[in-house]
Specification:
The structure is a homotetramer of 210-residue chains.
Chain A: H1 2-13, H2 19-35, H3 42-49, H4 53-59, H5 63-79, H6 87-94, H7 98-115, H8 117-126, H9 131-158, H10 167-188
Helix pairs in contact in A: 1-5, 2-3, 2-8, 3-4, 5-9, 7-10, 9-10
The first copy, chain A, binds a DNA duplex (21 and 21 nucleotides) through residues 18, 20, 41-43, 51-59, 61-63.
Chain lengths: 210, 210, 210, 210
DNA sequence: CATGAATGAGGTTTCATTCAT
DNA sequence: TATGAATGAAACCTCATTCAT
């Protein structure tokens, strides 16, 4: 599934980007993640990217367009593994138990998150402030994924592995638990380096919970 | 424990605040929570508070001082319940099992979070961008709480209720799980109203997981 | 009637303008008249007025607001003499013949134009490019004056002094003739100093046609 | 005399203009007339013309060159009818009375103006702001026409049809009257569609004064 | 204490123009 | 010849902050 991400990576990022455009994107990601969208100035991005300020606006009509150009692909990539055709069957045969499914999902999305840490950080930080982002998120996650997961929940409920409560409650709880954990673990805690008194480095441990 | 919060409330918030000062704080909280610190202008806050632009700076030397004046108290209130003297004994007698302790803590901090939603939102949103905030957080949470919790972990480890891994690992996992959940459940999901297709209202359910 | 203009002058211009505001208006009039609205930069106006650029925007939210603040009063002043109550009677007794009325009007508005030359110039130059200006003009000139003049035309038609064609045709012809003349004479020709080979100066001659 | 205009049309406009050049000119005329020279951007012209931004500058070194390329021909065309050799004789035999001459001139130049409305509009709008334009105008109108008209005035003064005042005064008055009228009638009034309550359409009436 | 006019640095964006392709 | 990416100066405008009243 990882290679899935990869192909989409190429499709979305590599598509027809001039050299300077790439530099702009990279610089913007760095600065947005570090200081936040509002607190980052376009002149700063330009300087870091080694281009003239005007160049940014040739490629992205506004500063917000630049934000969207950064954040939209990570949404697309985020949903990719859920879009596999006939999801139900595939999962059915792969994962007898919900726990297996959840484990796999956690693992899979954790990898994704680590690989796209700064971009996801920007997305999570900025989503509350930009209606456009909310809309994008709704389209990608809401309308595309939610209904698939709903079926999935019902499937496992039929198998008696999930209690009989509304699917959206299951979803809400699961989402809060899994993504809450990922966000806290990889995006909030790492800022608090002071906590790491013993082992410093972020060993790419593969255990599910560390 | 709720009344505990309350006393501190008075101590910190009510202490010598002029009428205009209160209006400023309220307006600032509203705007910061809605648009973020950087994207909120002081003139906007002044207008919403019904005071002159200069008045803000009479009370808070800089815009960042205003942010700190808002965010510092919620940190203080957040740690309050952990500061009870002789925490060990108290907890020891109250909670035979870790699960009970965790349940109580989750419940207690959930109440706190709900009561201070906008302010906590601001704190969580802005902490990554302001070294001063990180420092404050470190002082409050890090140095005051962490060592207490460490002892607590060791206490439950001695009782055989927690496996023998470094205390900081236990802390990290627990923190990620509990606060990740709270953040996702109360600060991220509520933005996505679209998800609520069936039951709309946020019934103040008291079950631990909803 | 001249003193009429004057009182309005005070009312509109002098009303509550800070010292710097006046300087800004004066500088803006000068620059707009000389180079046109679009070709004049706010920084230029600020420099000429001896104020910071930000000061302009404290008083006029946008550059266009500044233009309107300059141009709106001259419209108001322009219509003033037509707003005298019971216009019909007054004119009736004053001017037996249309020619007398037209002469008086030409003379009167000529004085006005000369006294407000730069501002009127700006108005005439910019009106084609700004829908807001057109709207203002329509309100002031169109709806207020046109109907009064219509009655006037009918009045003189009854007296047999104007041929029986639609009032708006009379108005259009008269307006074109009188104001076309004034514009050409006082706003276009003076730019062509080369033509004045003999007598240079613009003596404030009072003959009706010179 | 109309066909006169035509030949010059070909001479000036058609001379060696590539397809793209024509499109650029047409787009520029449209935009300049609508928004003014300063408020029109070259990129806008390029887009409207369907050419690359750089293409404009391949043909016209600067934006102002483009303006001149548009405005210079209409000046040339404007003077054309006055340049007929032996003007004096021709006019002498054609028009016994000044009134006839003026009538013919008004009629003739009105046709010209209507046929070239957008370009003349640009010329009239921009002339006050561009010394180069004033210079061009002076060369064309001033030095070429003025002296011819001076003779004409003297001719009619000798015939006793014009009072004995300096020729330049006659010229000024006549110019103001005729061109003021044309400008007001065809370039200012048409912007005020609100005035046309009765007859909407601009019937190409041929009466001298409508 | 409170005000709000004033500031000037800095923000985003536009624009005429150049130049390698 | 035509293109359009790149430029950087300058445009309009915002903002946190100061200070005389």
């Amino acid at each position: 599934m990882t290679d899935h991400d990869f192909k989409i990576d190429e499709l979305v990022d590599g598509e027809e980007l001039t050299d300077k455009q790439k530099k702009i994107i990279i610089s913007a990601i760095e600065s947005f993640a570090e200081k936040g969208y509002s607190a980052t100035s376009t002149s700063e991005i330009a300087k870091k990217a080694g281009v003239a300020e005007g160049t940014i606006f040739r490629h992205y009509k506004t500063k917000k367009d630049l934000l969207l150009a950064i954040v939209a692909p990570v949404m697309a990539k985020f949903v990719a593994p859920f879009i596999i055709k006939d999801l139900k069957k595939v999962l059915d045969q792969d994962y007898e138990h919900v726990e297996d499914f959840l484990k796999a999902m956690l693992e899979n999305r954790r990898e994704f998150l680590i690989k796209n840490l700064p971009t996801v950080k920007i997305l999570v930080q900025e989503i509350p402030f930009h209606p456009e982002l909310k809309e994008l998120f709704k389209e990608h996650i809401g309308l595309r994924i939610y209904e698939r997961l709903e079926k999935l929940v019902e499937h496992y409920q039929e198998k008696g592995q999930i209690i009989e409560i509304p699917a959206y409650s299951v979803f809400r709880m699961t989402f809060s638990a899994i993504f809450g954990y990922l966000i806290a673990r990889y995006m909030i805690l790492p800022e608090a380096e002071w906590m790491m008194r013993q082992r410093q480095s972020g060993q790419s441990s593969s255990s599910c919970m560390d």
